[in-house]
Amino acid sequence: MNSITLDGRVAADSELKYTQSGDAALSFRVASDIGFGEKKTTNWFYCQLWGKRAEALQPYLAKGQQVTVYGQLTLREWTDRDGAKRLSPDVRVNEVSLQGGKREEEQAPPASRQAPTPPPARSSYGGQKPATSRDEYPY
User: For residues 71 and 34, what is the distance between their CA atoms, to the nearest angstrom?
Assistant: First the structure.
């Protein structure tokens, strides 16, 4: 089984696109540091998340957001401007966990990027049913 778990920070705001068939595809890069001091290096991973979760997570995968990504790793070969062959680690994302709290300088995602919030569910009797016995209290 091919799986990878990586911790890092989103390198730039995520980008949401749609295929011709209407499937959502969210692309983002994650920078993951290894080592300390002068021996510290950064690995860059190109990540893609598909479907409804891609649409839901897009506002939250902004530059600087600390994340843990779970998925499958593939190596994509490409040629740079000088004609040298390069390898890029790509991750097909299965799961994303947002890490850390919201920083003070961060603001809520713009309203145009937020998913609409569904109205609270209401019952046919117009509100919450009052408890009629001790067994129905939640505590």
Answer: 19
Using DSSP bridges, classify how beta strands 4-10 and 15-18 pair: parallel, antiparallel or unpaired: unpaired
H/E stretch holding 74 reads strand 66-79
Q: Which residues of 66-75 are buried (b: 16+ CB within 10 A; e: fewer)?
A: ebebebeeee
Cα–Cα nearest to 29, from 11, 50, 5: 11
Domain 4-103 is in which class?
mainly beta
Which regions of 19-135 does DSSP assign to beta strands (E)? Answer: 24-34, 41-50, 66-79, 85-98
Contact 94, 116 (CB under 8 A): no
Q: Where are the domains of the chain?
A: 4-103
What tokens were used for 45? Answer: 């991973």
| 5-61 residue pLDDT tens | 999 999 999 999 999 999 999 999 999 999 888 999 999 999 999 999 999 999 999
